[in-house]
Amino acid sequence: MLLLHRLDRRGGQERSTWEVATRLAARGWDIELYSFALDDWPRHLPLRWHKVPGRKIPSQLLRNIWFRWLVRMMLWFRPPAKDSLMITVGTAALRADIRVIQFVHGKFNELLANREVTYPNPKSAFHRCYQKLTAAYEARIERKYLPKSSALIAISNQVKVDLEECVLKHSPVPIHVIHHAGIQGSLGQTITSSETSPKTEPLLLFVGALERKGIEKVLRCLASVKHLPWQFCALGYGDTFRWKKRAHQLEIGDRVTFFGEQASEPFFLAADIFFLPASYEPFGLAVSEAVSYGLAPLVSKECGALELWSQRPSWLKISCRDSDSAWVDALKRLVVDKELRKRCSKQAQQAMALWTWEKATQTYEQVLQTYTSRLLTNDTAA
């Protein structure tokens, strides 16, 4: 039994759930889904969808609260079978046997308190207060309900550490680390950047929420190498007017373009370097996707996707908290040396290709079988 707001292939959380759930269903697992929406699902798979009304509630906080309590009531009237596992992503539902954790609000709030991260796109004081309230509420739900789970699945080793330090403390809940695989893993092949139009300068790409994923640091670093040939484009939501103004202040406005929220594939095909000094990135499907398209990743080591490329050179093991000089040094190397970019891209591709969605699904299956067996054993003993 899967409890999730929606199932589609758009957001990273939903895409990863889709990749695993579809494979589990194809392997014979009987899946019931409680969600607002069911998108992109192949209709031939054995799935029973219980639609939860309320998808159009405008506030994310209210939508979360509504979903949790309404699902709780639905399950009260329609109790699950004794041998079924209730699985939810994060705190999407109040009751769950196993939770897949992709974002730890407790850790995010800790970073906020230390001013190491900022809220994404704080349009106004009211909006900032709303985001603060939402993050605090989600962190409280995590502290209350995650320790009551039979097991947790973390999408990276860093998320496991965050759970142990900020949520579980001394609670003995087992945590299983199962990484995402990304586009390259799901396709089982390497996709290379387009070479149809020869470029005289490398193109750098940023994809994600502008504020939280480090656009300020990106612009400062680019301004430090304005004497070198490059172009830069950014995709994602945020205060684009503010950042265009900032780029002009740094005298790089004519080489920086903000495209807002758009399909990323054409940009992956055209770019050479993926630049993402994110302050909190539990995994980062966009990173593994960029690598699959042949981009050299210049990404903060906090990003869980880089755990799949553990043997990367030391000069690429940079923290979002490191000074700009470390980032500028790495940026210079990648911009100037085309062969170095290709080597980094190839090494990252080869490392990340070793972990596929099929392997991730097999690991999920092993974990689920373990806890299903325990349910059956406990039921027999009772």
Describe this entry's structure for a reader.
This protein is of the alpha/beta class and 382 residues long. The chain has 2 domains: 2-181 and 356-381, Rossmann fold (3-Layer(aba) Sandwich); 185-352, Glycogen Phosphorylase B (Rossmann fold). It has 13 helices and 14 strands. The protein has helices spanning 12-26, 60-77, 105-113, 125-145, 157-168, 182-187, 215-224, 240-249, 265-270, 285-292, 324-336, 338-352, 357-381; strands spanning 2-3, 6-7, 31-35, 37-38, 47-51, 87-89, 98-101, 151-154, 175-177, 203-207, 231-235, 256-258, 273-276, 296-299. It has a 7-stranded parallel sheet with strand order 5-3-1-6-7-8-9. Strand 10 (203-207), helix 7 (215-224) and strand 11 form a beta-alpha-beta unit. Helix 3 (105-113) packs across helix 4. The radius of gyration is 22 Å and the shape is globular. It starts with a strand and ends with a helix. Mean pLDDT is 89; it is low at 184-197.
Radius of gyration: 22 Å
Stated plainly, the CATH topology of the largest domain is called Rossmann fold
Write down how many β-strands occur, each being a DSSP E stretch of 2 or more residues.
Answer: 14
Beta-sheet strand percentage? 5-15%
Give the second-level CATH assignment, the architecture of the largest domain. 3-Layer(aba) Sandwich
Major β-sheet annotation: 7 strands, parallel
The SS-based structural class is: alpha/beta
Separation of the first and last Cα atoms: 23 Å
What's the overall average pLDDT, rounded?
89
Total helices: the number is: 13
Instruction: Please give the CATH class of the largest domain.
Output: Alpha Beta
Instruction: Enumerate the strands of the largest sheet in spatial order, edge to edge or round the barrel.
Output: 5-3-1-6-7-8-9
| CATH 4th-level superfamily of the largest domain | Glycogen Phosphorylase B
- Tell me roughly what share of residues is in helical segments: 40-55%
